[in-house]
Amino acid sequence: MGQGLHVFGIRMRINSLYTKILLSFFTALAVVLVFIIVLFIVFVEDKFDEHVENELLAAFRLTSMSINLIASDDSLSDADAHADLQRFIDDLDVAFTGMVWLEKPDGSLFISSRPQPVPKFTLGETKTKDKLLYAHVDDVPGVNFYFAYPVRFFGYNGTLGMLCRDDIYNKDAAPVFLMIVEVVGVITLLLAFPVVRRITVPLRKLEEGALRCASGDLSYRVDIKRGDEVGRVARAFNVMADSVEKMLRMKQELMANVSHEMRSPLARMRVALELAELRMGEGRNDEARRHLLAISDEVEDLDSAIGGVIELSRFDAGAGQKVFSRCDLAEMMRGMLQRYVPAIEMKQLELECDLPEQMELECQKEALNAVIKNLLENAVKFTEQSGFIRLELFEGWGDVVFSVANSYRRLSEKELGIIFQPFSRAVGEDVQGTGLGLALVERIVTEHGGKVVAQNIRDGVRFVVRLPRERCKHEGSCCTG
Length: 481
What we know:
Elements: E1 4-7, E2 10-13, H1 17-70, H2 79-96, E3 98-103, E4 109-112, E5 123-129, E6 132-137, E7 145-153, E8 156-164, H3 174-214, H4 229-281, H5 285-317, E9 325-328, H6 329-339, H7 341-346, E10 350-354, E11 360-363, H8 365-382, E12 388-395, E13 399-407, H9 413-418, H10 437-447, E14 451-457, E15 460-468, E16 472-473
Helix pairs in contact: 1-3, 3-4, 4-5, 5-10, 6-8, 8-10
């Protein structure tokens, strides 16, 4: 069992992100609180103490003035004045929550707010400010401070004394401030739990999604709808899962098609080999040679199919690593066309070219050469004797377009729908081929962010490739005759 930390009944693993975020938050908050307290003690506490002292001094000055007014020199024998002074001292007892009395110059008690005598007490650290004396008192229950201030009453220069608790004067403001800061800190920490949970719960969902995908459930998607970094990671995870699922499905379809396509020629080769052996045993060597030639043709078809599968797999494996560079698409088309001039002349095909002098764009040169090669090879292969081939390259609205057209019969809707699928062939065609060339064309064009379509035209079939304008730069004339 791993070690854990229990907070408010919640067990958290020490190495979990949830715990690490909380501990980091606690540490940062503690450092900030200590820093605030230090700043308060250094810059605020002294001023706070001075403010309290000034307030106390003002209060005792007003009290002294009031006593002077009540007990003037000519009212020593005035009973009413004595009664007023007693009531005033009693009111001070209530106001300051402490025992208040007046002392004569010889230290004897003149009047007190309470019937019991003034208790004996020992003064601690003593301070004086503008005649106001105050000190700590430690040996009287319920009393913390002693105050003394000179007053004049009934002709005496006496002293106003007071024993009270520390709620009239708090010498050190830091404890109160610290308590407030601690309360704020606790509330902040309590609020941190749902905040941290909001971060970690989606990450757990991402972890669950990754584990489910790793176990083979590629259809699983995380449901996290947020606009922050966690939401973007979730959307990126779903995009990745879509891509992986699509790639795996394509690989499975390709392997199924490969298995199907390989099985038929192998079966024909086995039959042809048995027939060749039989004819050789009968001494009919000419027929045996004919069967061996059929096997040779099947081997060439297999070799071509294997090459197409390897090319498709190589392109899929390196799609994310290929580098785009500036290429002249017009020059690439003219160069590739030169390779097929002998085959075009042998079939007496009419060739029409509408290419600009120059058309530059950012592309994967080797891959785009494969697109041009497969489209030209497809056109030459399927065009009947004395037919035509037409090449065009121009800049469209927001893209660059090139097309390869050739004379051919009209394709059905079904044929147009599957023409770019691996191993697909036109219905009823006996022309040799693997059906992988156009599948590779679509993969490469899609990798370039473009689109390729096949469409019937008045006298044939045309393949149109559109590449996004953002990757291209057009220089020179638009077209030449």
